[in-house]
Amino acid sequence: MQKTVLIISTLDTKGLETEYLVDKLKALGLNTLLMDISMRGDAPSSADIPPQRVAAAGGSDFEEIRTSRHRSQITNITMAGASKIAADLLSEAKLDGVIAIGGSTGTLMATEVMRSLPFGIPKVMISSTAALPGLATRYIGTGDIALFHSVIEISGVSDLLKNVMDRAAEALAGMVLGKITSAKTGEGKAIALTMLGPCEKCASAVRAGLENKGFQVIGFSAAGIGDRAMEDMIASGFFQGVVDLAPGGVGEHLFGFMRDAGPHRLETAGKAGIPQIISTCSVNHMTPAKSKYKPDFHERRKYDLDKFRTWIRLSGPELEEVAGAFADKLNQAIGPVNVVIPQNGWSSVDSPDNPTYDPQEDQIFVESLRRKLKPGISIVEISANMEDEAFAQAIISAALEIF
Predict the structure, then answer these.
(1) How far apart are the C-alpha atoms of 2 and 246, rounded to whole Å?
(2) Which of 15, 135, 139, 284 could bond to 11 as cystine, CB 3.0-4.6 Å?
């Protein structure tokens, strides 16, 4: 069957440019569905999915959107309607990929729709504002979106813009028509694994040990965005077990720091009944942006990971606060949860020659967590550093008991 791609654009401002992209994709052998997410304009839309249908799907009507002065409100309505239509197309097996063109508003709206689609659906965003500071991360978020910086404005069908759209269309066609491995985990259980540089040795050993037992292990960098994406993919049913070595994003969210993993970190697997092994890499440190240091941060014990990142030791009260957040989240779990904690340092940073090493103070977290966890969630302490082979083997053994 011919593959179908959804094209998202604002025809009131980018009609000719969109028409060129549609023709190019058709020439590559793809069936196209054009969605118009315009919020202004009087002329009838030539799109397969006109703004009137988008507005209706969002619970409004286009005349209300067209005449409204509340830009944020009508943008949200349009994004909700477009996302619903895209989800319906996918459920009806009428969507094999999506591509969009836009400036800042168009890109924000189109990538919102893309992020609503599951991992593995090809997504290409041609944007003239991809390089604006702070926007690229917002556009992509936790989505598997290919962000294509047009460099030039998407205005007028010049040879340079044709070149940009040709390359993007060819890229999408390659993803849709090419021989791509399915975005499913195939035979055996799939395990999500969080990891960071300071516990990479442990993560690698755990991955190898579980793979030797027939599991597929998919790693996520627990730097804020990666572990948010993991939570999304757990909710989508990708995994049957979680080894959460580095859940420090819980505390980072409490304090608003760089590795903030959002309000639902450490919740999704438990609510889904998926077995979890939880450990503590980086939980005893925080990573505030240096521009946001409080006065006392300069006096704290700290460790420079590199010239851009510094880990600062949490205080005793902060460790107790983080333990309370962990307990609140883990107590919601309806599946098995085992907490495995190294007694001799929670990462490679935690070694006796480093200023932030303090196993005695770490016990504030451990004992507070032990008091607050519901019966049935065990805490096992291992006399090792997280990067020791003995600790990796303890994690593997604990995982094999409940996976």
Answers:
(1) 44
(2) 15
The H or E element spanning position 302 is strand 302-304
36 and 13 in contact (C-beta within 8 Å)? no
Quick one: how many helices (H) and strands (E) in the chain? 14, 14
Contact yes or no for 31/123 (Cβ under 8 A): no
Q: Are residues 75 and 138 in the same domain?
A: yes
β-bridge mates for residue 8, sequence order: 35, 100
Residue 185 lies in a domain: no
CATH number for position 305:
3.40.50.12030
Residues 320 and 227 in one domain: yes
Instruction: Give the Cα separation of 288 and 294 in Å (integer).
Output: 9
Residues 6 or more apart in contact with residue 187 via CB below 8 angstroms: none
The CATH number of the domain holding residue 54 is 3.40.50.12020
**pTM recorded for the entire structure:** 0.84
Q: Tell the residue number behind the tokens 């021989």, with chain if given.
A: 179
| Tokens of residue 346, six digits | 């929670």
Kindly give the pairing relationship between strand 216-221 and strand 97-102. unpaired
Check residue 186 and give its pLDDT: 66
Which CA distances in Å does 128 have to 110, 149, 165, 169? Answer: 13, 6, 12, 16
Torsion from C-alpha of 267, 268, 271, 272, nearest 10 degrees: -160
Average pLDDT by consecutive 10-residue portion of the chain (403 residues)? Answer: 95 95 97 96 90 95 90 94 97 97 95 96 96 89 95 94 97 95 79 95 96 95 93 94 97 93 96 97 92 86 84 96 98 97 96 94 98 96 97 98 95
Contact call for residues 4 and 38 (beta carbons, < 8 A)? no
- Tell me which long-range contacts 294-302 makes (C-beta under 8 A, separation of at least 24): 301/355, 301/356, 301/358, 302/355, 302/356
- State the burial class of residue 256 (Cβ atoms within 10 Å of its Cβ: 0-12, 13-18, 19+): exposed
Q: Are residues 146 and 223 in the same domain?
A: no
Distance of CA 332 to the CA centre of its chain: 22
Among 278, 252, 281, residue whose Cα is nearest residue 370: 278
Taking the alpha carbons of 125, 80, 93, 274 in that order, is the dihedral positive or negative?
Answer: positive
Last residue of a domain, one of 149, 177, 205: 177
Domain that residue 351 falls in? 190-402
Give CA angle at 119 (249, 32), nearest 5°. 145
